[in-house]
Amino acid sequence: MENIKEPRQRLSDEERIALVQNQKKMHQITLAMLTIAGVLVFFLLWQMGVSTGLLSSKYVASPLNIFNLFVVKLADPNPDGAVLGVNVLASLEVSLIGFFLAIIIGIPLGLFMGWYKGFDSFMRPIFEMVRPIPPVSWIPLTIVALGIGLKAKAFIVFFSAFVPCVINAYTGIKQTSPVLINVAKTCGASHFTIFWKIGIPSAMTMTFAGIRIALGNAWATLVAAEMLAASAGLGYMILMGRQFARPDIVLLGIVVIGAIGTLLTSILVMIENRMLGWKKL
Amino acid sequence: MEKIVIQQGIVLSESEKKEIRQNRIYKILPVVSIILLSALWLFASKEVLGFPSPAETWERFTQLLEKPIKALSLWGHIFVSLQRVFLALVLSWIIGISFGILLGWSEKCNALFGPVFTAFRAVPPLALIPLITIWFGTGEGPKVLLVFIGALMPVVVNTQAGMRNVNKLYLDVGTIFNATDRQKLFQIAIPSALDAIFAGVRTSASAAWMVVLAAEMLGAKAGVGFLIIRGMDSGDEALVLLSMICIGIVGAMLAVATQIAEGVLCPWTRKGSN
Which residues on chain B are in Cβ contact (under 8 Å) with A228? Predict the structure, then answer.
């Protein structure tokens, strides 16, 4: 008993705080170590599996190979006919056009539908009919109507990003606090003023969540669109990699797609934090 | 309507009359929009070359019921696709929910597997199609695997978020009542994360439906995705449109089914969601 009690009594407040902080720090260090270990083990297993011949190089390329190919592909247009930069730009162009169109059209549509009942009951049936059709299945009709150019692909991407924009803007503005609306009404604001000054700002959190989903969808659908109809772009590059039986090209394409997707998402999160900073007081 | 009849003896104020009039308009508007949409469809089929009219699509539908493509009628193709989706969905729910619980519950597991998983998640499942065909060919297994991957991500992410956001108060109450870690996990954390888990399940159903479609479009011998591509390759636009409609209907039915399942399994989460 003495042994246990004594050190406790000797701890002053500062020491106790230091002790807790120390424990927290240790915990964080352990977590960080685990993170690094997880990533390292993953890559090591991958690399070793390939270099020991456990995984045939016909099917998998090692991380080092992929990195080398990445450097080579920056300047070498083989085998799919475009250097990596051109492919990335082609993909970005298509997806961003579709994505921004979806934002420009989808969010106002969702906001208006959520606010004006008449507009809602007019648009709802059309929207509900269109919504469950996956964007990928628009591809054949789009090809017939618009060919296989930029317009067709941008349309498919637009479609995939459009639906979450509308739904989230709609839900967001429906959730506007009635207290705020009533306050505005009491102060004599018109229906449109309430919409503009209260409805839209309070719908922004949900809307941004929708934009994030839309971005993910746009980027995912782009790959499908490019696989079915394209002559450049990352999806096309992957497809060509398969046709030439080059797993390294396919894997490089996948890694680049993943990396750009992550990059775009983090840019969006930054924008969101800046624009919605006032909400997180 | 009955209400209005009953109220006839009562004098209605101006605003009440206006409201009744407005409500009537709101009821008519959906009909108007559907009529407009049909008119647009008819117009498109006349003006745009190769765009099938409603009648042609219907005809194609009856024809497909009698004359099967690749020995399967329309129902057969839908059934094949649904089979793939269900197999993959069940697998992804079992594995995804357990993995998500693991990641959400144990910080250490999250630190260990989280980064690799996040990196993996950043890749759209459709981009994996070529890789999986290189590895496993184009049989039934690879398709189910693809759908499985597509459905796994939302389940894991939502489950993890749900476990993370368990109200700390509940866990503290558990601690006060001397609950073991196991009890806290199974009796407090998982039940309170159920609505998040179900959100993941709902997302996974629609994601799976989309992935199966894409997988079938890129190489299959049966299924609705195959039908669409068949229609496109043979210039049979009515078939394309018909498959699109079927895909839409089945997708909507899947969404409704998961919603009903949610209502049955955890009724407390139902709060006027759309």
Answer: 217-218
Q: How many domains does chain B have?
A: 2
Q: Number of Cβ pairs closer than 8 Å across A and B?
A: 161
**In A, residues 208-237, which contact B (CB 8 Å cutoff)?**
216, 219-221, 223-224, 227-228, 234-235
Domain at A63-280, CATH class: mainly alpha
Tens of pLDDT, residues B199-250: 889 889 988 998 898 888 877 788 888 888 888 888 778 888 888 888 889 9
Domain that holds residue B239: 60-270
Statement to judge: residues B41 and B165 lie in one domain? no
> Which of A122, A114, A118 shows the shortest CA–CA distance to A206?
A114
CB contact at 8 A, A74 and A83: yes
Q: Is A148 on the interface with B (CB under 8 A)?
A: no
Integer Cα distance of B239 and A141 in angstroms: 11
Residue B43 and residue B78 in one domain: no
Report in angstroms the alpha-carbon separations of A13 from A5, A9, A16, A22. 16, 10, 5, 14
Same domain, B212 and B90: yes
Which residue do the tokens 């210039």 mark?
B235
Taking only residues 21 to 60 of chain B, the set having a beta carbon closer than 8 angstroms to any beta carbon of chain A reads: 22, 25-27, 29-30, 32-34, 37, 48, 50-51
